[in-house]
Each structure stands twice: as C-alpha cells, then as structure tokens.
Amino acid sequence: MKILDILGAGDINSAISECKALDSFDFKKFFGTCGLSKKSMEDLRKVFAILDQDGSGSIDKTELKLFLQYFSTDARVLSDKEAQSMLSAADNDGDGKIGFEEFQRLVHF
Cys staple from 43: which of 28, 32, 39, 92, with CB 3.0 to 4.6 Å? Predict the structure, then answer.
C-alpha cells in the first residue's frame, strides 16, 4: 500500500510545497492540504501503517523525521524541532511515541 493509493498526488504535492523551507512544517495545515484530515478511520489506519515503518504499532521520532518522505520521496527530512513539535502535540501518554489513537487525534487536531 502506498500513500498515493489513499491521497491524491496533487494534494500531496501542494502540501509538500507549503513546507519546503526548513522549520516551516505545520502538521495541522499539512493534514488539511493533503486531505488526510477528511479521510475515514480505515484510511487513517492505512496511512499510520505506512508511517510506522518498523511495524512497532507506534511512530517514533526517527520515523517522524522522515514523515514528509513517506508522502513524497523527494521531500525534505523534518528538523528535530519540527519532529519534536509534532510528537509533543500528539504524545498524550508521554511514552515518546505516537500510537494510532494519538495519530488520529493529531490528524483531526
């Protein structure tokens, strides 16, 4: 499964374009622009599985840094600050990772 099976290429390209500059990534805006915030629970689970590269059931900071590259292979890596910002916004249980329920809340933030 690829993210392009779930989201439109044009929407993804628009979302990636909005955060090309270092430290310009805004996850709320990104999820809205790429259309993820309007997707079903099933589609969110599919995207979560793609982002959870190691299959651990959660997304860690290393996976978050590569976040944009899961949407577009030529996208930049998130800065530590950007990855930490997204992690801090989502990590309700304080384990340093984002589980599916936390991801779902983050997407609909």
Answer: 39
